[in-house]
Amino acid sequence: MQRLSTLCFTAALATLAAPAFAQTNDSDFRQCLNGLRPTAQANGVNETTYRAHTDTLQPMMSVIGNLDAQPEFKTPIWDYLTVLVDPQRVDEGAQRLQANTELLQRVQQRYGVDPATVVAVWGVESNYGQGFGKTPIVQSLATLSCFGRRQAYFRTEFYSALRLLQAGHFPPERLQGSWAGAFGHTQFMPSTYERLAVDFDGDGRADLIDSIPDALASTANFLQRAGWRNDLPWGFEVKLPEGMSVLGEGRRTKRPGTEWAARGVTRIDGTPVPPELSLGLLTPAGAKGPAFLVTRNFDAIYSYNAAESYGLAIAHLADRLRGGGPFVTPWPTDDLGLTRAERRELQTLLLARGHDIGEVDGLLGEKTRTAVRAEQTRLGWEANGRAGQKLLKALRGG
Ligand code: CA
Asked: Which residues of 199-211 are buried (b: 16+ CB within 10 A; e: fewer)?
């Protein structure tokens, strides 16, 4: 679906309000909405719906800042994975697997996607239903349709959101989600809802907000339609032979398992690469970090939210839910990232030192990063605002 990243902690990123331009924005916005009206109608949104949801709508300029601050592309992969696949998310996922065993079996029978994968998507997308996002998505999509650099994409989603309301799928006040318009347990964009949401609990309505069966089945339906094959793994960690070039390799460059084996690649435990699989090589931190061979199932996960780091988070969380361990090859860094529990500890330590970081919420927002920079300066370190294990240790030591 080529969705923009909308993971919940994005909301904590600082956004730039520009009060001086508010007036201009308001009139530009009004003009833009009037201009979109004919296209909205051509896309199935009737005049009554359009007026009901846009007549008094204000632009939400805070979302524009998020557009250029997507964590998958700015955050080191080891920070990203540490927070998305932390012990808390693994434990809660195991509980969700247990609590929904029968449902997940039926989902697997129907769509051919295994329970751990479905639950991993759920865990990464909404923290198992505990964080849907609180942004009114018609307002954010309308703003993104009129300002910023992806207007054509967001207009499609804006019209789609209006069609959802017009069809009565959701009351307007329930249509809240991420700043970029994804909503519900598994954070579908409105157009994805229209294409792929399913009613799995049989009440006649595909409800990704208030029905876990509908949400999980819709995710499995998405993955199946994206090419998921029940008889394939997503991939696995591998060991590369010393000095092997990874230049030009990637997720899309699939080669037979036999070819990887001939190059000296093995599974991380030294066993052979399955010869029958078609596999691409993923080295998210370069040849010196963990390496993976991935199948078309990885591509299916990738299509949920176009970022390889995201795909790896889902795939790895699913492995952990099946009882697998952490990656064997260490990340090429001497300062690993923080879990959510460690982020909360860091924030508590920053508060104790008198920094105004607001609430201890485990989200490293702008206030926390400002405090981190101050501490880095005090320690004589580069003040880059990134918090890792080294800083946590330094603050623990007083
Ligand atoms: Ca339903």
From this structure: ebeeeeebbbbeb
